[in-house]
Structure formats: C-alpha cells, structure tokens
Amino acid sequence: MASLICAIRRNSLLGLVFSDCFCLVVLDNPRHRHQLVPVVQPNHLDSLRVTPDGSHLIQTRPHHDTPTTDQHQVVPIVHRLERHHLAVTLRRLDIDQPQPTTLLPPVVLQVRPLAKPVLAHRQQRPPLTRHHHVHHLVVPFELDPLDPARRPTHRPHILLVETNRHPLLRPQNNLVLAARDLRPDQVVAVVQRNRAALHLANAKQKVALIENKHLGGTCLNVGCIPTKALLHDSELVAGIRNGAARGVNVAKMTIDFAKMMQRKNQVIQRLQGGVRSLVKSRKIDLFEGTGKLTGTNQVEVTTADGQTQTLETDNIIIATGSAPRVPGVFPADRTKVMTSDEILSINELPKKLLIVGGGYIGCEFATLFAELGVEVVVVEMLDRLLPMQDQDLSKALAKVFKNAGITVHTSTGVEKLEVTRKGVQATLSGDVTVPADLALVCTGRGPVSGDMGLEAAGVESDNGFVLIDEQCRTNVANIYAIGDVTGKVQLAHVASRQAAVAANTIVGRQDSEDYAIVPSAVYTHPEIGMVGLSEDQAREQGLKFKTAAFSMQASGMATAYGETEGFAKLIVGEEFGEILGAHLMCPHAADAIHEIAVLMKSECTVHELVATIHGHPTFSEALAEVAEKITGHPIHG
Predict the structure, then answer these.
(1) Which of 409, 616, 633, 636 is catalytic?
(2) Can 121 be counted among the known catalytic residues?
(3) Whole-model pTM?
(4) Whole-angstrom Cα distance, residue 536 to residue 607?
(5) Domain limits for position 452
(6) What is the pLDDT of residues 594-631, one digit of tens each?
(7) b vs e for 60-86, b when ≥16 Cβ sit within 10 Å of the residue's Cβ?
(8) N vs C: which end of the chain shows fewer Cβ within 10 Å?
(9) Residue 331 domain flag
C-alpha cells in the first residue's frame, strides 16, 4: 500500500504525492505545473529540495563514493501511477524542516481517475506500458463520515490526483473523500427492483419495495435464470446424443420435458425464497401491488384486491424493467404466438418452432429447442444473426446453426403471421410460407413505464424510456431510475450496477456509471462472450486499430473437449495497444470474457495480457494466444 502525502505548501511547492514507485510534485509555476519524479527511498523526505526558480524538485541523497557528501540531482519527469487504492496520511512538510509533521491519522481511500489516459512508451521496459499526465486540484475534504470520532475539527485541504485517461475510454469518478452524513430515518421507495432496495437497506435506510409480480424481476422469473437452467439440460441431451464418438452409448434416450420444466420452476422458487429472505432480514417493507407516482415524494400503491395506499418518501427509484415487444400486426393469441415470457411455461415440446428475430434471445431459444429435437426456423430481418455483434461471431454462429440443422432466413421479413387450426403459418418476404406448431416472437423489449405517473412527477422520458444521468438520477432531483426502463443497456448485470450507483448517490457516496465497459454473453452452444467495441464499431468511430483471431481448433482444451468451433478475437489500438474490444466463442466464454473486462477497466494494454501467465489447459488461454499474435509474436501460426 502506497503512502499519499500532501498538504498546502508555501513558496512554489504546492504538494507532494508519494508511492513506493513515484513522487508527484505539484509546483505553482505556469510553465511547470507538475512533474513525476522517481524516488528511491520515498520515506526520506529530508532529501527533497525545490530549485530556486521553483520549476524542479531536487532530490539529495548520499553519493555512493563519499557517503558523507550530499549530491544534488534534478530527477527527470518520467514515471507512472500504478495504484488506485492508497493509504492516505495528511502531513505538513515545510521546506526548511527535515521531517514532516503528521496532522491526521491515516485513512484508506480510493483514487479514481477523472479525465482520460495518455499512453506513452516507457523507457527501459519495452514494448509498451501506461503513462499518465497528472494535474492537481485542491479541494476541502472530510475524513470517513461514518466515523465521527475520526473527523477533524478543522477542514484541511487535500491534493486530488487527476489522470488523463485515453480518449477511447470514458472518464471515471473523482477521488472519493467525503460523503454527507447518512440519515437513518430516510425513506426510499423502490418500485420493482429488490437489489436497489437491499443496497439501501445495507446503508441503514428505511426502504419500501413495491413489486407487482414476483420478487427477482424478469431475470429470475422469465429471463436469465430459467433459460440457463433449460439450456444446461439441453446441452446434456446434446452431449448424450453425440456420445457414441466418446464411448458413451445410450440405447434409447427419452426426454421428459415436463420434468425439465418442473426443475426449472424449482430453481426459480428456491432463488425467489432467497430474495424474500433477504428482504425480510433487511427489514424492507414489501408492498405487493402496482406503484404509481402521484408527486415527487408520493407513490400510490394498488394491491391485487384493489386497495390503495399512498407512501410518503424522500427518494424514489423507478425499476419497472421491460416487457417483450410484439409487432401490432401479429396475432394477440399468446397460446400459439408467444413471447419469451409464455414459452417458458409450456409443458410439451412442439414439433416445429418458428422464431421471429435472430438476436441473442432468439438464438438462445433456437439452441435450446434444437438440442431437444425440435425443428427450428429462425427469421431475421437484418442481414445476419446477432446483427448488433461482431460480424465474425455472426458468421461462426451461422455455421454452428447449420450444422445443428437449424434453418435460418436472414434479410427476410415476416409479412404475415396467422393462427391456424394446427398452429401458426408465416408468410415471409419472397412469398415463402412457413407452417409451425408455435411461433416465438423475439423482436426486442420495450420499457414498462406507461400509467406510472411520470408526468405527475415531472419525470422526463423518451419513447417510454426514463432519461437519467450517470448517477441514475432523472431530471427530478430525488427520483432515480435503473434497469431496462432507462434504455441504457438491457442486461440484468447492468441493472444491478445501476442499483448500486443509485443507492450510493442517495446516501451521499460518490458513484457513477458510463457503460463504456459492459461484458455480455449469448448462451448458445458454444457460448459467446464479448466486451467493448466490435470491429465495425471501431471503424465507424474512425479509430486506428488492428485485430487478430485465434481459432479454437488450435486450443488444447477445446480439442480435449471436442468443442473446436469458435475463436478468440481482440481489437486493439494501433499505436499503443489499448484493448478496444474482445470477442470469444467457446465453452464457458461468458465466464472467460471477464478477464478482458477487468483489463479494460484497469486501462491495461495488450502487452499486459501477453505478460500475464495463463493456466493450461484452459479455454481462456486462447486470449493470451491471440494477444501474442496481435503483438507479432505468435506461437501457433
């Protein structure tokens, strides 16, 4: 843990920031506002002196040949800031005093950059690493507000370190030094998002949670969890069906789909019970009904039996989520023309399934039902599957679907969809008809915000999506929104992050989210994981980049599994090697992609990825392989 030593200085020296590898010197000089100075022994503060003109810091230390003689040395402005977590001690260091005077006890703080990084070559450590240009900002601060005993009676100043971050990466937060006092009696109404309620309850807030369906929301009940439970079952079925090549011979395999659905429901019930237990243990007031804003501080709750109750609250979090969108020209019969909600409640497999929409939801259901032996037809209006993802992923998945016997129509619209006595019949562009037992419509999701009273509270929205800032605050200061209803990124883990941001902001902790680095996955078989930019997106932004891919056919682990479909792909900046995006297709890709997400969040380059030891054999070592390839030192190919 490094030491951060800073104070208001007299003369031209404004501040010093020490770590075990650098010293930041802030000078009150228009031409030399700051410099980074390597320090051999950072705890020897008596060896530091300022030059007469105030432009440089002189480090004096004993000469190697004559230990009793001081050697004055002007140290160059080259080094790096490596840590974001520092143990902080505030000290006053006078130029004419050999030792600093400690003013306050140490406290652990988190340094988060404010601006954008500047990458540059580092001497004596090829090929590349990070550098930061550091500026200063002096602001008043308080110590930990949760511990009044440690709070200073006066208000000293501290030097904030601001790092220039790379233009490709969004700015993050300021150094978190102080938060306003928490109000244990503060009331917060959360409309349909239990995770936000739990964050607030942990912060000793009084919380009311309004839920009109099931605790856990879409993800737990009709989204992420039930689909993954069924996809795991279908993967087992596919493995048994193809087991002969591995020496696993099953004379006759039968599928009890009703049993699968029963297990899926048990998974949901178990997790629901866990959520309900958390809500109860955190003493959150649960109102099972529908919430409607009647003002900036009032929420009207209507229960299933029609009774109403008005809650008075200091803050409101809107988390009503989204619902499947179905084109108005399609039949309203949800027994045969279904969405992702209804199809998770069927108890009998159809013989043929028509899926309208080739995005990630449609592709996951196509994988699930095809592996269970259903004839699947996918119709996508755009020119490829997964049209929002990297084109190489789309091409690879199209090949996987073809091998699995899934029929795919791209650049094709559904001109007519009607319910028949035997099921459904779709008329596609080009006058092609497709009969099926069921139709599954996966054409996107829209916000659940109608009749919520947004207008009554003065909350602004755009096509139903509630507009928010980086703190998840709406245009009304005490009303927040999180999750799919904001239209930012419709993923459960993004909603969870937003829940933390909103809760932290409410209780006075500085936090924000810019959605620049969001890992995501498509749970086909093999899985797909991705983070950052696709190749097309990097090109559209006018970035200079290079890209490389590593085929899973050269992976030892993929070969051992017999799962050689797929690849690892990196997109990096041409000049500095910053990681712009990564795309992975292999078993467990949804897990492995987080390595790249952490590297990107930490502003590491592809060279740090190359220098990191990866376990063998693993699927994730393909990321190191492609990193070596993109830096010009491939082992395979």
Answers:
(1) 616
(2) no
(3) 0.74
(4) 23
(5) 187-324+447-506
(6) 999 999 998 889 999 999 999 999 999 999 999 999 99
(7) ebeeeeeeeeeeeeebeeebbbeebeb
(8) C
(9) no
